[in-house]
Amino acid sequence: MNSTVTTAKEGVMTTADSQFQLNPVNQRRWELFRANRRSIWSLWIFLAMFTLSLFAEFIANDRPFFVWYDGQAYWPVVVDYKESDFGGPFPTEAVYRDPWLKLHIEEKGFALWPLIPYHHTTVDWDLNHPAPAPPDASHWLGTDDQARDVVARVIYGFRISVLFGFILTLLSAIIGVGAGAIQGYFGGWIDLLLQRFMEVWSSMPTLYILIILASVVEPSFWWLLGLLLLFSWMGFVGVVRAEFLKTRKFEYVRAARALGVGNTRIILRHVLPNALVATITFMPFTLAGSVTVLTSLDFLGFGLPPGSPSLGELLQQGKSNLGAPWLGITGFMVIGIMLSLLIFIGEGVRDAFDPRKLFR
Amino acid sequence: MILYILKRLLFMIPTLFVISVLVFVIIQLPPGDYLETYIAELQSQGESVDPDRIKFLRAEYGLDKPIYEQYFVWASGMLVGDYGYSFEYGLPVNEVIGDRLFLTIIISVVTIIFTWAIAFPIGIYSATHQYSWGDYGLSFLGFIGLATPNFLLALVMLYLANVYFGTSIGGLMDPEYIDQPWGIDKFFSVLEHLWIPVVVIGTSGTAGMIRRLRANLLDELQKQYVVTARAKGMQEKKLVRKYPLRMSMNFFIADIGSLLPSVISGAEITAIVLSLPTTGPMMLNALQSQDMYLAGSFLMFLAMLTVIGVMLSDILLAILDPRIRLQGGATK
């Protein structure tokens, strides 16, 4: 990993496109990862699902993404239009699912609807079956008990879960690696103090603490992220600390210190790259763990604010509506597949970074 | 050795003290106290509240005292086995949670035994038969087990039981034994119901442990002393059992420390899903109604279990590994 820095420099000095050339070690890692077919397939499938879900507004929405009306083009997904823009009587926000407006637009133009014409908040008022309605042609996976389309909710729910997981993992990694680095590098009483603190903090029953804290503040995406962050950073500390404890006694570190290099520089430049391998290997598993915690909090009703598209809430509905198996089964499949993919990717990454395989 | 254990025990005291302070602060965090919830409830039912009575209750439970004094009363009571008074149940906390705590401990212990009993042979098989079909199959199952959250599994079980047996698998004993004193019949009834939560809670831990045991054992099997022993004509079975296995036992023991908290927290949410008569659901209730002594004592107990688990694994490790014993457990 140490050579990453030098390669980057050379990249700048040569042509622009060779900047993206991986150094030989990383190239070997990438090859190892690619050789693991289960992992590489998982990676592609996961990336495809995630990329698609990033454009959820264009896949599942209660507005058409393009309207041609009276010789003019409209983009309702990105721009809010008033009903009066389409010849309606009121200057209120246009409701495109309104049959009158639909007909009116059809008269003077046309509307292109997304594949799934429901937003995750859309309540379908004209179900011909009491909600939760079973799957049919208009609702591929049925609706939940508030007559909202399950497919739309799954797409948005997947996006929010994964984004939440990514942000949480990244922040935990930053804090955890920082804490581990300081502990391992300086050792002594800083190490002892933080170690004791973590011993205490990690023996607290996390779930209940989260529930109490979630009842004190109004839960929102960022609050929840902060609360989970209180506990999740500790996972990274152990590995990073061990790596630093080992590395700080190596000759090149001592040489750097003898040459008068500052602590910050030694940590960032000389020791941290060693610890990064352990961190990166850890990340997919933390990601899977974060998604699980979010889902379980949502499931218990202490998670994201009500009305959010959440997979945990879908499961909760599945549990309370055992007569509507499409809810539970959908929730189970989506969560199960998502987490399995992450674990497969994680195993592949771990193997690819394994020095025993790398330098065989 | 005794010195090491004593040292470890002494270390526990400040840890537990800090935990108790933290727990107390956390249960004080939600605004208001139980009496306010209680008054609001009475008023919503249209009943009048006698201010004198409220005053009396407040003084009785020490809710009018400053917070540090409340903490002192709670913590010192805990030392002599008095865990405070549950407002909601109108009983001392000991009586309310005794049975439930006992069941929680039983489930945790049985789950850990289950985890070991399954993970150990499978891990050894996977490592000694690396890249065989059995290894692949078991690994794949292990991945799935690792990826599936506990409560998801619990839901699936609930659902299957509902569809195929038409019964609810919730609970930990047949209904007629609830609130009955312990006897042989009740014991067997609990045993009968126990396997579902144990499987549900134990699966992910088992899967993780198989992965780690396999990796560890594979490392050991590649070492030179194994090659030497093999070259000298040692029987394969004896060879594996005598040396590499004992080396990879180390982490197995070290894992209790991390296993116990994860089993307990996994048990909490699973218990809520399966509505087991353990601490989980009651705790949730206590939190919602701000029954603070009950909630606080619960949190304290769970934290204590974790601390004890870590300590046990440290002591076992010290017994097993002289290097740790002599260094006093410090990572050098």
- What shape does the CA trace of chain A take? elongated
Considering residues with a beta carbon less than 8 A from a beta carbon on another chain, report the largest interface and each chain's count.
A-B, 40 and 44 residues
Low-confidence stretches of chain A: 1-18
Q: What Rg of chain A do the Cα atoms give?
A: 26 Å
Spatial ordering of strands, largest sheet of chain B: 1-2
Oligomer: heterodimer
- By secondary-structure content and strand pairing, the structural class of chain A works out as mainly alpha
N-to-C order of helices and strands of chain A = HHHHEEHEHHHHHHHHHH
Average residue pLDDT of chain B:
76
Give the CA-CA distance, first to last residue of chain A.
17 Å
Strand content of chain A: under 5%
For the CA atoms, what is the radius of gyration of chain B?
25 Å
Count of discrete alpha- or pi-helical segments spanning 4 or more residues of chain A: 15
Mean pLDDT of chain A: 82
Query: What distance separates the N and C termini of chain B?
Result: 20 Å
What is the number of E strands of chain A? 3
Give a quick precis of the structure.
The complex is a heterodimer of chains A (360) and B (332). Chain A is mainly α and 360 residues long. Chain A is 65% helix and 3% strand.
